[in-house]
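Tutorial handout. Part one gives the primary structure; part two gives the three-dimensional structure as tokens.
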Amino acid sequence: MLKKLAMTAAIISALGACQTTGGDPVVVGYGGAPSPYRETGAICDGAGLDSQLVALKDRSARSRGILGGQDFAGLDGADDGLTERVYALRDKLNRFDAQTDVQYRAISSSCRAHARCMEMNAYQEAACASSRAEWRRSREEFSDLTVELRRIDAEVEKARAAAIATRRGRGRGYGVNTRENCDCSGNVGGVFSTCCK
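Part two.
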């Protein structure tokens, strides 16, 4: 029991020595001065990129919701071309979501790499030209995702319009002849028949 108390006291005192006052982080390489990486790193950790990611994910989820919504309910098998189109659009949205995650990680890591390069080279732009170019390229690719999502959204809306037109064209029975459309009394099954010949 005494050993456990002594061990706990040693751990608490060791952790107390690590406690900071809440000021700027101190890095040994800067002679005790606050690290400028904190300011440079803040560029990468800003809410702007995160909000763009959330907006892209929300729009993708909205398109996915449209594809799974009421306009497409009950169309399986009714129009094979439309059904295939819906599946293809779902696949595109899945690939888009995966690509969004990849690009988000790429832009975050390239920004941090550039910030670290700038810090290590005393903020000399010429020394970090390649990391800056990589960061710029990843930002452009991330921006291209917005254009790609607009294309997918347009395809989803076209498929939605086609689904609505298919529903309207099929009438009340959704492609099945009803008693109002034909006289089924002569068929085997009579009133229980689903199709008139």
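Part three, for discussion. The helical segments are 2-18, 37-44, 47-67, 80-120, 129-170. The longest helix spans residues 129-170.
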